[in-house]
Design a protein that fits this description.
Blueprint: E1 7-9, E2 18-22, E3 25-30, H1 33-42, E4 51-53, H2 65-96, H3 100-126, H4 135-156, H5 164-186, H6 196-223, E5 228-239, E6 246-256, E7 262-274, E8 288-293, E9 301-303, E10 308-317, E11 327-338, E12 342-344, E13 349-352, E14 370-380, H7 383-389, E15 392-399, E16 406-412, H8 429-435, E17 438-441, E18 445-448, H9 449-457
Parallel strand pairs: 1-4
Antiparallel strand pairs: 1-2, 2-3, 5-6, 6-10, 7-8, 7-9, 7-11, 11-17, 11-18, 12-14, 13-14, 14-15, 15-16
Helix pairs in contact: 2-3, 3-4, 4-5
């Protein structure tokens, strides 16, 4: 009797798996009576050997293999789907995100995708033999990650266009919620024992490090606003002879005096003649347009910090003695958008709406009086934003509106027209907050008309400019 081996079968666990011990040594786990007989045969225990059952007798085998494997397969499938969705996003952002924070987020997404793959492997163990003590904990972590990611995507989709990713996120949200309930029933966190002091120390240190990184590399760059300076000034004026046209040279410029690179989406300058006093005493309708045009080309030019774009334009004023101007004034205006929040997919395409060529026509949403239309698709600063926001399009119109021609800029999904109106900040909040789209009205240069005419008359004959003014 002293040499008789003691065989003990433990009580069923949450999934119906029963632990087998021989002489107090664990030799495996079994789901059914057939698996128990095979295990004892491999261990050299003869058939009919007495077995001690704990908790339940030898007739209690609650496992249902088909339902258990079906649940495990569903869990593995959901975790692998999450990983397959995260890997492309992480690869794209880790190498191509426009900001340091975006690239860090890309590497983080890659790590999370790797965790999902490991969780899928742990799910196979958890719903089969449970050879790894922490397999349930790893599965729980993977499902929680899926729940958080799908919830984030669904929340980010509020107010956005419905896309295929929205449907997938809703499906994963429902899946992860159901799996979390199942894991709670199985008490998947069992076996995890970490000293509280170590846990608090690790979590506290991680939170401090993450907070410092987020503040220095993400928050500060995000809230830093572009500083764009623009303006005009009059230079020399000359006239070949009395009664001839007067030529006035105006210097136009735009400079990035801040720390944020920008795209210049549109630029325009006006040369007006009118009263010497300005607003609010004088209305805009009291100024008569002499010349207008763009002075930053091509559309979409990058303006990095410290860079300046300047141009001298020569304005012809015909019959200067007959003009009743008290002063002439020059003013500039540019539209800029932050380069660290979006990327232009291609060069701007142009359509001349005054002289339509083959295949070019006015579209619904074109403003009345539009002379030309420029457009291009853009991608957001990160692939995750591309997933949630979908494709976006920038459209720039040059509009003829009498004495005050203007530039209209739209940032919207293709096929939609959401106008950027500088005087209505609430209407433009979305484009402003997302991409830093802003209008920069330059300083006004004004000079007395008679004084300018006298300087032009005093110019030596033959000193006329060689270039003609743009129109």
């Amino acid at each position: 009797m002293a040499n008789t081996r003691i065989v003990t079968v433990g009580a069923p666990d949450d999934l119906g798996l029963r632990k087998v011990l021989i002489d107090g040594r664990s030799v495996g786990r079994v789901w059914s009576e057939e698996e128990l007989k095979k295990l004892l045969t491999r261990e050299g225990v003869e058939d009919g050997h007495p077995i001690r059952f704990l908790g339940e007798d030898g007739t209690c085998w609650p496992d249902h293999a088909w339902s258990r494997r079906a649940i495990g397969g569903i869990v593995v499938f959901g975790l692998l789907v999450t990983a397959c969705l995260l890997f492309p996003v992480g690869i794209a952002d880790s190498g191509d995100a426009l900001t340091y924070g975006g690239r860090i987020a890309g590497f983080t997404i890659l790590v999370v995708a790797g965790v999902e793959v490991i969780a899928a492997a742990a799910a196979v163990d958890f719903w089969e033999l449970r050879l790894w003590r922490y397999s349930g904990v790893v599965v729980l972590i993977g499902v929680v990650i899926t729940f958080l990611c799908s919830t984030s995507v669904v929340l980010l989709q509020i107010g956005e266009r419905f896309t295929g990713y929205t449907l997938i996120a809703i499906g994963l949200l429902v899946w992860s919620s159901a799996v979390l309930v199942e894991l709670a029933k199985c008490r998947a966190w069992k076996g995890l024992s970490i000293p509280k002091k170590i846990t608090i120390g690790v979590i506290g240190s991680a939170l401090v490090a993450v907070a410092n990184l987020a503040y220095a590399q993400i928050y500060v760059p995000y809230v830093t606003t572009p500083l764009i300076l623009s303006g005009a000034e009059f230079k020399e004026a000359n006239q070949e002879k009395a009664g001839a046209s007067m030529y006035v040279t105006a210097h136009l410029y735009v400079k990035n005096a801040g720390q944020v690179p920008v795209y210049v989406l549109g630029s325009i300058y006006w040369i007006h003649g009118g009263p010497a006093s300005g607003p609010p005493e004088v209305k805009a309708t009291d100024y008569k347009l002499i010349y207008d045009g763009e002075f930053v080309t091509p559309v979409g030019q990058v303006l990095n910090p410290g860079e300046e774009v300047a141009q001298d334009v020569v304005v012809e004023i015909k019959d200067p003695e007959k003009r009743g101007y008290e002063a002439i004034r020059a003013q500039t205006e540019v539209y800029v958008i932050r380069k660290d929040r979006m990327t232009m997919a291609t060069d701007f395409k142009r359509a001349n709406l005054e002289k339509p060529s083959f295949g070019v026509r006015c579209e619904q949403g074109d403003p009345p009086g539009a002379k030309s239309r420029y457009w291009t698709n853009i991608s957001n600063s990160t692939e995750m934003l591309n997933v949630t926001r979908g494709r976006q399009r920038i459209t720039v119109w040059r509009v003829d509106s009498g004495d005050w021609p203007r530039v209209d800029v739209h940032v919207s999904p293709p096929g939609q027209r959401i106008s950027f109106v500088p005087n209505l900040p609430l209407q433009n909040r979305e484009a402003t907050e997302r991409y830093g789209l802003s209008q920069v009205r330059g300083a006004t240069a004004q000079t007395p008309y008679r004084e300018l005419l006298e300087k032009a008359r005093s110019t030596e004959k033959g000193e006329s400019p060689s270039s003609s003014p743009p129109k």
